[in-house]
Write a structure and sequence with these properties.
Oligomer: single chain
Helix content: 25-40%
Shape: elongated
Number of strands: 15
Order of helices and strands: EHHHEEEHEEEHHHHHEEHHHEEEHEHEEH
Strand content: 15-25%
Distance between the termini: 71 Å
Largest sheet: 8 strands, mixed
């Protein structure tokens, strides 16, 4: 015999049919709640249905949930729907399930566990004491029993040890195939209670914040479901939100918003990448303490983990505060037009470019270490963003730098750092880089960084400049990059192995120029 849990069981349809076989009205009601997916709505998000089974046969079952039929109440948690099939009665099998629920409640830090019943003399056998009379949801009188769980001794130690193992199994099963990005923006994989909670998208949501609310449902989860969005990071009201975890008096409100803002800008993949880095540094302390109270400052802390450095440079995400620096160099007619984008006309124009174009993931401001001010831009582009036809696992790089910094080797230094990042951390297999006919500075820079001529595309529209151009493409495979180590390759011509893309591709203001 063994205990399994209905919501995390592999064959729920079978066990639902087994519950249906019970000859008890309450058992049939439980069957209907499970069939209609309404049990958690009735008794709480963390509701479980422990089942004692022998092979494929169901012997006994019960529920373990924040609420039962005594509502409203501050008492929690509850054991309910306790049932043993007739031919297995007399062996105290119900006690095995009670002990299971008691053990889970013990590791969850509960002081008491409760049962609502009309029986007398049954639960006393298992250490329960009559506590009070109460009205159930039908208005009927019900006897409430409780059992103290924090009494020191071998029984408590045994419950704690068993409960820890049982709960770990439930959490592991609940997390399978589940998105561990919390609706509010936190990472359930990086929560300090992660090993005890399946996450707010799983069937076993023990979020330390969510459980404070009615039926264990976090207000942020309710709000997102009402709006039909994946999470707070998709909400247009995020910046001004004061709901749920974002309540101003919540010490984690700023950190919550910072993480949601980060996901909105960089996506979930980068979010988990940064969380891994963050918690390597802070050894899984509470994220809200790391990121502080101010959402924008917290966002900058998170973005700091996206920084790449070289001997002389910092490559970091663009900030709105960079608008003045961007305008200073992007207004020069020697920079943008050669790369396919017009000169910037004002600081406001540059700010809008930061918000729309330079906010894309894997787009970095090139900054000198001495003052961390933006002097150029460099970025990586996926196949869907690229100028040319690329396979999955390949990526394109584009760059430019302000005229006062030409000839100092800053861009080759930045390119080599992004090559290392793309090949070693992103798992890319090849990198492309292109330049328009006549842009000799970009051509020489690419050759210095190991790129090899691949093909030319003629009569190519350049939408931002409103003209048609010839574009040359260079290529660097991971194998060649690994073979040289520093990007210094001989100039070997490589033939094109597939037709050019019929789609012109992107031509934006962070494309390649120099140097």
């Amino acid at each position: 015999m063994r205990i399994i849990e209905y919501f995390t069981a592999e064959n729920k349809e079978h066990w639902l049919d087994e519950i249906k076989k019970s000859d008890w009205g309450a058992g049939q009601f439980l069957y209907q709640l499970l069939r209609d997916n309404r049990l958690k709505e009735a008794v709480g998000e963390t509701a479980l249905v422990p089942m004692l089974v022998d092979g494929d046969e169901l012997i006994a079952f019960c529920t373990f949930a924040p609420l039962d039929d005594i509502q409203p109440t501050d008492l929690s948690p509850w054991i309910g729907f306790v049932y043993t099939f007739p031919r297995h009665r007399g062996h105290r099998y119900a006690g095995i399930l009670l002990d299971y629920a008691e053990s889970l409640a013990t590791v969850m830090g509960r002081e008491y566990i409760y049962i609502s019943t009309g029986h007398t003399g049954l639960y006393e056998k298992y250490g329960y004491e009559f506590y009070t009379m109460a009205k159930d949801i039908e208005g009927e009188d019900s006897r409430v029993y409780r059992k103290a769980l924090n009494v020191n001794g071998t029984a408590r130690d045994r419950r704690y040890e068993n409960g820890a193992g049982w709960k770990a199994g439930i959490v592991e099963a609940a997390r399978k195939g589940v998105d561990m990005t919390a609706y509010c923006g936190f990472s359930c994989n990086h929560c300090f209670l992660g090993e005890w909670c399946g996450g707010c998208r799983s069937v076993f949501n023990c979020c330390s914040y969510g459980t404070l609310h009615e039926k264990g449902q976090c207000p942020n989860v309710e709000c997102c479901r009402e709006k039909g969005i994946d999470g707070c990071y998709e909400c247009g009201e995020l910046d001004e939100c004061t709901r749920g975890f974002c309540q101003p008096d919540n010490d984690g409100a700023g950190a919550c918003k910072a993480q949601a803002m980060f996901i909105r800008r960089y996506g979930k993949e980068k979010f988990f990448y940064v969380q891994d880095k963050l918690h390597e540094t802070y050894d899984f302390k509470k994220t809200q303490k790391i990121l502080g109270q101010n959402a924008k400052e917290g966002l900058k802390i998170l973005e700091g983990y996206l920084e790449l450095t070289t001997e002389r440079l910092i490559l970091r995400p663009w900030q709105e505060e960079d608008a003045q620096s961007l305008y200073q160099y992007a207004k020069d007619p020697e920079v943008g037009p050669a790369a396919g984008w017009p000169v910037h006309t004002s600081v406001e124009n540059s700010l809008e470019i930061i918000r729309t174009v330079l906010s894309e993931p894997e787009t970095y401001a090139v900054c000198l270490k001495e003052d961390n001010k933006a002097i150029g831009s460099i970025g990586l582009f996926s196949p869907t963003q690229s100028h040319t036809a690329m396979a999955e696992g390949e990526i394109e790089i584009g760059f430019w730098i302000g005229v006062p910094f030409w000839g100092k080797g800053y861009i080759p230094e930045a390119v080599r750092r992004l090559q290392q990042y793309a090949f070693e951390e992103l798992g890319c297999q090849a990198m492309w880089c292109g330049y328009y006919d006549g842009n000799e500075k970009s051509k020489r820079c690419q050759e210095k960084c190991g790129f090899i001529y691949h093909h030319t595309e003629e009569n190519k529209p350049c939408p931002l400049m409103g003209d048609v151009r010839t574009e040359h493409f260079n290529y660097l495979s991971k194998e060649l990059w690994v073979g040289t180590g520093d990007g210094s390759l001989s100039r070997t011509k490589v033939g094109r192995d597939r037709e050019p893309s019929p789609v012109p591709g992107r031509c934006s203001n962070e494309e390649n120029t120099d140097y």
